[in-house]
Specification:
- The chain is an alpha+beta fold and 866 residues long.
- The protein is 61% helix and 7% strand.
- The chain has a six-stranded antiparallel β-sheet, with helices on one face.
- A hairpin with a 4-residue loop joins strand 3 and strand 4 (35-42).
Length: 866
């Protein structure tokens, strides 16, 4: 039996992934090609079962014929003393059966259905029938890919034991019961009378086979998703897969199995043999018809996989088209409301009323022409998206050339819509032009709100794209105008303070950000502002307090914000998703892993529903979930999520953006943790060369490079990186008396190792009092305890290097007591730190289980993180 750490050919086993009825699967590392793979072997208790061996080899042959992105790929076959192994594509994610419990959105369910249909079409084109299609045999990766697994029961047309092979993707030959009436399931549901063979009443009889061919009368598959011909023990064909797909499709869109469990085995087999399943009246008519056609009793009457792909594409496109028309209508309301305020202002005096009427008529004409393209005839059946309407609006702006103020308002509104969609290149020229108009508009003296809005929108764009200096200039100008026109304590001023606080955080100036947020919150509470507006301030302040380690107050503030948003914004609003993410990070810092994961998932689902997968805000939420996965040792899952987030962020924000740099560093941290140093070094170097505005990001990039250099034995290069990281944080140390610094423990430990004891002492004398002050401020923070314990770990090394073993022992024991307070959740950094301290104390036996746990998780870093 293979064990973790064994080498099978060129593959080193890293972890145990699971087992099924026939085989077991290990995670492994390909030492030659430097990539993660999965190794599948026959279970030890089934190794001498000839039928199992034949199925195992059949799976290898089947997969060798299939090369499609929706099917798990076969890389090779290894014969070994411990058994034969399939070398498979490593797929990390969740089985569809797990995803179904979460209740996927209709959009996601449709995407999953279409990918499964792609897999079936690819397999059937090679004459391969899967024969066991069910949710447990479909995997969804973190980046949204769908993979069909487990071709252990698959049958190639050339292996069929009855009837000639059929042409791929053609209608199947009729079964012996083809003459019986066609019963369409699940819509018709007319019960048929079948005399069940005796074997169906005995649900657990082992199958027999000969020559690799399934014997007549053998039941293959899973009863809840089985076609009637399979349940009767007849030959399964590609048409059998399509019946199973119909049942799976119904479950995807209703959230419940078409054949629920809980009934006697014989009854369920009888139901399968008769081709029956529960009804699903809530399905859309088109989906209901498709499921009915797939679940037709007669195999030859079922559509082919290619036909199903086309029908699903048509259903998917018609749904979004209706929703996009709704988005178009909503956009019309936004544009109209932006102009109504102006019309009301112009109607204050009789002389202006005539002008207002003319303006309103021109704006109505403008909007009518913009949205004329949404009509089905005008669009000629093409999808009408928000981008389509915005582009049409831009082309129509010249019609308002004789009304420059109204034209500028529309430019600002369209620019805002582009910004919120993440289309920054389209938004920038519109917002620049609008602001240029309002900066010279005489009407600004009496009503500056249009200019303020344009300033805020352009500043937000600059902040989101990493242009922080210009963003601050624009936000500060907006604040000055607000204070001059409305007074220093007006709620409008609080908006500017919140904007400037968010910008201060992006610069790493948390102390200034906290002052601005508290000032804004005081103004909002004194003026009884709208609850949704107050909630944003509470959530922002709570997240900032989390960074400062004040977790209890942070939790309370963000929870209050979520309650307000839920009551006044309703479910699914992006602001609420931001608050849920903020609360998840707080709960993670407090060690509540399950709470954090649930909150992250809720936030991500909201953003995917509202903004889509390609929006940078959705990507940031995905990266937050990856942070949790990394912290708890689910490294492969974290890598997959980080890569998706990084691709979206880079595409939307550019490679220099702080969010892109932060994700690069976190992805590099994971690669370093599991020993993939080349990938880690590339990412750290990219992050440093981007010169991020936040000094903490610069320090983290250089500290990561230092760790890699130290691991390679290049202490001189490691020290140079540490010094650069230390210099990058000078401003942070001046602004925040509690900021100890990033990477100081690793820096000091390296100095001790090189014998520079006085330099190490000076570094620790600077860092430890600050870390102690932060710990006193954040007593319930797991991270603050770990930070202090890491410094104490090095302090003990320093005492031992100076010959004072007793003091070293006392300091290490104190550090161990600190991290022993950590939660039972497997935070890998804490496990590594505790193991290191136990070993320093001479308690290797106590450290061994922790090291074994780290090995099982795939941890390959020699030391705890800096």
């Amino acid at each position: 039996m293979a064990q973790i750490g064994d080498t099978i050919g060129r593959f080193r086993i890293r972890d145990y992934l699971g087992r099924g009825g026939m085989g077991e699967v290990y995670g492994a590392w390909d030492e030659t090609l430097q990539r993660r793979v999965a190794l599948k072997s026959i279970r030890p208790d089934r190794r001498f079962d000839a039928d199992v061996k034949r199925r195992f080899l059949r799976e290898a042959r089947v997969l060798s014929q299939l090369d499609h992105p929706t099917i798990c790929r076969l890389y090779g076959f290894v014969e070994h003393a411990d058994g034969d192994f399939l070398v498979l594509e490593r797929i990390d994610g969740r089985r569809l059966s797990e995803v179904l419990r979460d209740g996927p959105t209709r959009t996601r369910a449709m995407a999953i259905a279409r990918r499964i249909a792609d897999a079936l079409a690819a397999a059937h084109a090679q004459g391969v029938a899967h024969r066991d299609l069910k949710p447990d045999n479909v995997m969804l990766t973190a980046d949204g890919a769908v993979k069909v697994l487990d071709f252990g029961l698959a049958l190639v047309a050339s292996e069929a034991d009855t009837a000639p092979a059929v042409e791929p993707s053609s209608a199947q030959a009729p079964s012996p019961d083809a003459a019986r009436p066609q019963t369409r399931v699940p819509t018709a549901r007319r019960a048929t009378t079948t005399l069940l063979p005796p074997h169906l009443e005995r649900a657990a009889r082992p199958a027999s086979s000969a020559g690799g061919r399934t014997a007549a009368g053998t039941v293959m598959g899973t009863v809840g998703y089985m076609s009637p011909e399979q349940a009767r023990g007849e030959r399964a064909t590609p048409a059998s897969d399509l019946f199973s797909f119909g049942l799976l499709l119904q479950e995807l869109f209703t959230g419940r199995p078409a054949r629920p469990e809980g009934r006697p085995a014989a009854d369920r087999m009888r139901q399968a043999a008769e081709g029956r399943a529960d009804e699903a009246p809530e399905l859309d008519p088109e989906l209901r018809d498709l499921v009915s056609d797939l679940c037709t009793y007669t195999p030859s009457a079922r559509p082919t996989a290619d036909a199903v792909r086309r029908r699903l594409a048509g259903i998917a496109n018609r749904g979004p088209r209706r929703r996009r028309l709704a988005v178009a209508a909503l956009l019309a309301v936004v544009l109209l409301s932006a102009m109504v305020r102006h019309v009301i202002v112009l109607q204050r005096e009789r002389a202006a009323a005539i002008e207002a009427r003319r303006d309103a008529e021109q704006i109505a004409d403008f909007l009518r022409d913009v949205f004329a393209g949404a009509q089905p005839i005008a669009s000629r059946g093409r999808d009408v998206t928000a981008h389509t309407l915005l582009e049409r609006g831009v082309t129509q702006l010249d019609r308002l050339a004789d009304q420059p103020r109204q034209r500028a308002r529309l430019m600002a509104t369209i620019g805002q819509a582009y910004r919120q969609l993440g289309s920054y290149d389209e938004a920038r020229p519109l917002l620049e032009a609008a602001l240029a108009h309002f900066a010279t508009d005489d009407a600004d003296a009496s009503d500056p709100r249009a200019r303020i809005d344009a300033l805020d929108q352009l500043a937000s764009l600059e902040r989101e794209t990493g242009q922080l200096t210009r963003a601050e200039t624009l936000f500060d100008e907006a604040r000055t105008i607000r204070q001059r026109h409305f007074g220093a304590q007006h709620p409008h001023v609080a908006v500017s303070l919140n904007n400037l606080a968010v910008l201060a955080r992006a610069r790493g100036d948390d102390a200034r950000a906290a002052r601005l947020l508290r000032e804004a919150l005081a103004i909002q509470q004194a003026n009884a502002v709208e609850p949704a507006e107050l909630a944003s301030g509470l959530s922002n302040l709570g997240d900032l307090l989390r960074l400062r380690g004040e977790l209890g107050e942070a939790d309370a503030l963000i929870t209050r914000a979520i309650d307000l948003q839920r009551a006044h914004l309703g479910p699914g609003h992006p602001n609420m998703a931001t608050s849920l993410n903020n609360l998840a990070v707080v709960r993670q810092a407090r060690g509540a892993v399950d709470d954090a994961e649930q909150l992250h998932r809720q936030a991500l689902a909201m953003l995917r529903q509202v903004l889509g997968d390609d929006h940078p805000q959705t990507a940031a939420s995905l990266a937050n979930l990856a942070n949790l996965r990394r912290a708890t040792g689910r490294f492969d899952d974290a890598i997959a999520r980080y890569r998706v987030a990084l691709a979206v962020q880079t595409r939307a924000l550019g490679p220099q953006h702080p969010s892109v740099v932060a994700t690069q560093i976190r992805l590099a941290d994971v690669h370093r943790a599991i020993g993939e140093t080349a990938d880690a070094e590339t990412l750290y170097a990219q992050a440093w060369s981007a010169e991020p505005s936040d000094p903490r990001l610069r320090a983290r990039a250089r500290t990561g490079l230092a760790a890699l250099a130290a691991r390679a034995g290049d202490d001189a290069t490691a020290l140079a990186h540490h010094r650069a990281a230390h210099d990058a944080q000078a401003a942070m140390r001046e602004r925040d008396p509690h900021f100890a610094g990033i990477g100081l423990a690793a820096h000091a430990r390296l100095l001790v190792r090189r014998g520079a004891l006085d330099d190490a002492e000076a570094l620790l004398a600077h860092a430890q009092p600050r870390a102690a002050a932060r710990l006193a401020q954040a007593h319930d923070s797991r991270e603050a305890r770990a930070r202090m314990a890491r410094l104490e770990r090095v302090r003990g090394d320093l005492h031992r290097a100076r010959g004072d073993d007793a003091r070293a022992h006392d300091v290490w024991a104190q550090a161990l007591a600190r991290v022993a307070q950590a939660t039972s959740a497997p935070f890998v950094d804490d496990l590594a730190l505790r193991a290191s301290l136990l070993e320093a104390l001479g308690r290797a036996e106590d450290a061994a289980p922790l090291r074994a746990q780290l090995d099982q998780l795939g941890w390959r870093a020699p030391d705890p993180p800096p």
